[in-house]
Amino acid sequence: MDMADKYAIPYFGLEPGEYAYSFTIGRDFFNAYEGSLIHEVDVSLEVRLTRRERILVLDLSFDGKVDLTCDRCLEPFAFPVELRRELVVKISEEAAEAKEEDVVIISEDDHVFRLGDHIYDYLSLLVPYRKLHPDQDGKAGCDPDAIRVLEAHTGKKSRGKDDRWDGLKKIKIDN
To answer: Which in 87, 95, 121, 135 has the greatest CB count within 10 A?
Structure first.
């Protein structure tokens, strides 16, 4: 099954009312997107679709984890994912670009709403710019051995007195 079809909701012929869908997002989902920063993922997506005359309202509920690599110690860690979003899909005579966030306009000729790109965007935007282990009891969750090696090579163990600035402190400037 094609990835686009796996994460699609057929809405044509649905009577107005509420419908529920469940999806599991795994490694194969992000491997289908070239250049993705996410590779290991285990997220469940619950979709509650409210069908109206020419509008679909999708309540998206993401829950799971994304495996990331810590930028500090380079060890993998599980980043928890929990997100609730509402996506409004308007059905029009022809597809158009929506001016509002979380609103999509599709053509009435489409009989299926493809959710894949929206899932990719929502989960990709959840990944922090700086990926660090979460704190554990007030301490960094990084591997202590990796931190010791890092501090030994960078010389950032202590921020004691820096003698290089002593000469500058002796300079008196008269205004």
So the answer is: 87
pLDDT tens string 121-138: 999 999 888 888 877 766
Enclosing domain of residue 115:
3-155
For residue range 3-33, list pLDDT tens digits in order.
668 899 998 888 999 999 999 999 999 888 8
Structural domain includes residue 162: no
Pairing assessment for the beta strands 112-114 and 8-10 based on DSSP bridges: antiparallel
| Three-state DSSP class for residue 67 | strand
**Does an H or E element contain 51, and which?**
strand 40-51
Helix (H, G, I), strand (E, B) or coil at 7: coil
Residue corresponding to tokens 């285990």: 42
The size of the chain, in residues, is 175
The tally of domains found in the chain comes to: 1
